[in-house]
Amino acid sequence: GGCARVPQAQQPHAAGERARVGAFQTREEAGMLWVWGDAASTAAEAEAALPLPLSPLLRQLCERSPAAGFQRDLPYGYELLGENLLDVSHLPFSHHGVGGLAREAGGALRVRPP
Fold it and tell me: How many angstroms separate the Cα of 87 from the Cα of each of 37, 80, 81, 84?
């Protein structure tokens, strides 16, 4: 997409070519925005065919109460956030007692897709 204006620039009307980004397929489900990070011409078909990794419990919660989510601002960088989100093995240990998680449920994780 194109950018028409950059308010923080010294000349806000001059966005320029460097202010362009590619367009990606998106899907909203369970109150979240999912982005298919592939700009290929076949991305729309691939994204539509891919089932999202959502638990049935989360789907039920969103159907019953769409505004049941919450947001929290935390003062740390994207590196730590990425590590936290990718390391699902930390859940039973770090979040013990939250949402039915228990330390005893922790263990080895299967790292290959089925």
Answer: 20, 11, 10, 5
Q: Residues 30, 59: contact at Cβ < 8 Å?
A: yes
* Bridge partners for 26 per DSSP: 35
- Dist. CA 25–CA 45, nearest whole Å: 10
Q: What one-letter code names the amino acid at 111?
A: V
Residue-wise pLDDT tens for the chain (114 aa)?
667 777 666 776 666 677 777 778 888 887 778 888 777 778 788 878 888 888 888 788 788 877 666 667 778 888 888 888 888 778 887 888 887 888 887 777 666 766
Nearest CA among 37, 42, 34 for reference residue 22: 37
CA angle 24-25-29, nearest 5°? 130
User: Is residue 103 within 8 Å of residue 97, measured between CB atoms?
Assistant: no
